[in-house]
TrEMBL record:
<keyword id="KW-0812">Transmembrane</keyword>
<feature type="transmembrane region" description="Helical">
    <location>
        <begin position="320"/>
        <end position="346"/>
    </location>
</feature>
<protein>
    <recommendedName>
        <fullName>Sulfite exporter TauE/SafE family protein 4</fullName>
    </recommendedName>
</protein>
<feature type="transmembrane region" description="Helical">
    <location>
        <begin position="243"/>
        <end position="262"/>
    </location>
</feature>
<feature type="transmembrane region" description="Helical">
    <location>
        <begin position="419"/>
        <end position="440"/>
    </location>
</feature>
<feature type="transmembrane region" description="Helical">
    <location>
        <begin position="6"/>
        <end position="25"/>
    </location>
</feature>
<dbReference type="GO" id="GO:0016020">
    <property type="term" value="C:membrane"/>
</dbReference>
<keyword id="KW-1133">Transmembrane helix</keyword>
<feature type="transmembrane region" description="Helical">
    <location>
        <begin position="388"/>
        <end position="407"/>
    </location>
</feature>
<feature type="transmembrane region" description="Helical">
    <location>
        <begin position="139"/>
        <end position="162"/>
    </location>
</feature>
<feature type="transmembrane region" description="Helical">
    <location>
        <begin position="168"/>
        <end position="187"/>
    </location>
</feature>
<feature type="transmembrane region" description="Helical">
    <location>
        <begin position="268"/>
        <end position="287"/>
    </location>
</feature>
<feature type="transmembrane region" description="Helical">
    <location>
        <begin position="63"/>
        <end position="87"/>
    </location>
</feature>
<dbReference type="InterPro" id="IPR002781">
    <property type="entry name" value="TM_pro_TauE-like"/>
</dbReference>
<feature type="transmembrane region" description="Helical">
    <location>
        <begin position="358"/>
        <end position="381"/>
    </location>
</feature>
<comment type="similarity">
    <text>Belongs to the 4-toluene sulfonate uptake permease (TSUP) (TC 2.A.102) family.</text>
</comment>
<dbReference type="Pfam" id="PF01925">
    <property type="entry name" value="TauE"/>
</dbReference>
Length: 461
């Protein structure tokens, strides 16, 4: 599937889903007065039944088969989700909703807690691991600075849209997106697997042709490598200036979100604080985009084919605009779903030519900022029970460390980094399946109860 076909697929799928919302809203007879809606109307009335799914449901934390099953699913989802750099929110939300019994919004908030825990432990592990091929940090800070502001901006937009979008529409949009990205990642993994097979075959041929010593044993030329301790690797992987910029963006968004939560919805200050998030994100993104554009252009002028960062593309204005768009879309999906945005960022980094280990480490690093921001905000809003949050964070942190350790050992043994891509594709596909099951269940219930299935008014929902 080429990039153009993939984008055409997403455009057609999203358009049909959104148009069907108006059809469903107008073609069903409800047991209650239908919503009066006008593009120029400021008065919109909703039946109480349309907001039933907004009630808070918090089961007690006690030992049961539900907790055991949720722990196993959460552990495996966190482990493999962090290895693939996609988080796992598409698995956590249905699991917490269908198995444990949380309401959808509380499940999304707890999903952020799990992503924060797993991403934090994964980042700690990755910071003590050297780059597999170069003498550079394993986290690409240039790409992190390029995507993190737009991702956080998109999450803000996604959270706002989740108020007005019906749950079934969110499910359909996410399934369309996840099926497309998982398929594209799967074929990318097959391509990488075939390339690795050719490389491994060439290495075997070289070993067979290598000279032998007097015992008849093969030997390889000795290559001197400087071995670093884990502390030295940790110091080398940390780039404090870049991290401080990311923290500045994080605190700026948190400050604006806290102020916004104290204002009336759709009031003057509400919109002012929302708009102020755009210059914060665009300032940092624009600075990094300008830097990449200038460096890439200067290298092309002198005939230097070396990549500016881990991505192997030329940083033209079109490519930078596309990355900004994808960052916002990834954030919107994260805001709608309750994930960290890795379902877009992980596959996108692979498309840009970033090797799987660096793509996973960079996507996980960015998700740590976006998920932790949401967790702090949800905590201030009292959107999740503290005991459950602490338990799930502990489980996901252990899973993140275990997953990174296990998969790196497998990669070293098999000498195939394409495994990371297949894990990424599998987690996204599994998320599409679980979201589909949960969405179908809720949609059938809504249809059976003759509930309203159209758009809700943003300011009055």
């Amino acid at each position: 599937m080429t990039t153009r076909r993939f984008l055409l697929y997403l455009l057609c799928g999203f358009s049909m889903a959104i148009l069907s919302t108006f059809f469903l809203a107008d073609s069903h007879d409800y047991n209650y007065p239908r919503r009066l809606y006008s593009l120029h109307s400021t008065s919109v009335q909703y039946p109480a039944e349309a907001l039933n799914n907004r009630l808070k449901v918090w089961p007690k934390l006690k030992f049961s088969w539900r907790i055991v099953l949720a722990t196993v699913i959460g552990f495996l989802g966190s482990a493999f989700g962090m290895v693939g750099g996609v988080g796992g929110g598409g698995i956590f939300v249905p699991m917490l909703n269908l198995i444990v019994g949380f309401d959808t919004k509380s499940a999304a908030a707890l999903s952020k807690c799990m992503i924060m825990g797993a991403s934090t432990s994964s980042v700690w592990y990755n910071l003590r691991v050297p780059h597999p091929t170069k003498d550079v940090p394993i986290i690409d800070y240039d790409l992190a600075l390029l995507f993190q502001p737009m991702l956080m901006l998109g999450i803000t937009i996604g959270v706002a849209l989740s108020v007005a979008f019906p749950n079934w529409l969110i499910t359909v949009l996410v399934i369309v997106l996840f099926l497309g990205t998982s398929s594209r990642s799967f074929f990318k993994g097959i391509e990488m697997w075939n390339q690795e097979t050719i490389i491994l075959k060439k290495e075997q041929d070289k070993q067979q042709e290598a000279p032998a010593n007097y015992h008849g044993e093969q030997y390889e030329p000795q290559v001197l490598r400087t071995e670093k301790s884990q502390l030295e690797i940790l110091r080398f992987n940390l780039r404090w200036q870049r991290i401080l910029v990311l923290l500045l963006v994080w605190f700026s968004f948190l400050f604006l979100q806290v102020l916004k939560n104290g204002t009336a919805v759709c009031g003057a200050w509400y919109w002012v604080l929302n708009v102020l998030q755009f210059p914060v994100a665009l300032l940092v993104h624009g600075y990094e985009a300008r830097k990449l554009y200038k460096e890439s252009r200067n290298r092309r002028v002198v005939g230097n084919s070396e990549a500016v960062c881990e991505a192997t593309i030329d940083w033209t204005a079109l490519h930078l605009a596309f990355c900004a768009f994808c960052g916002i879309i990834g954030g919107i999906v994260g805001g709608l779903l309750g994930s960290g945005g890795g379902f877009i960022l992980g596959p996108l980094l692979l498309e840009l030519g970033v090797i799987p280990q660096v793509a996973s480490a960079t996507a996980t690093f960015v998700m740590m900022f976006s998920s932790s921001l949401s967790v702090v905000e949800f905590y201030l809003l009292k959107r999740f029970p503290i005991p459950y949050a602490l338990y799930l964070i502990a489980v996901s942190m252990m899973a993140g460390l275990w997953g990174q350790f296990l998969i790196r050992k497998v990669i070293e043994f098999l000498k195939r980094t394409s495994i990371v891509v297949f894990i990424l594709s599998s987690v996204i596909f599994a998320s599409a399946v679980t979201m589909g099951v949960a969405g179908i269940k809720n949609s059938i219930l809504m249809i059976h109860n003759h509930e309203y299935m159209g758009f809700l008014c943003f300011c009055e929902s």
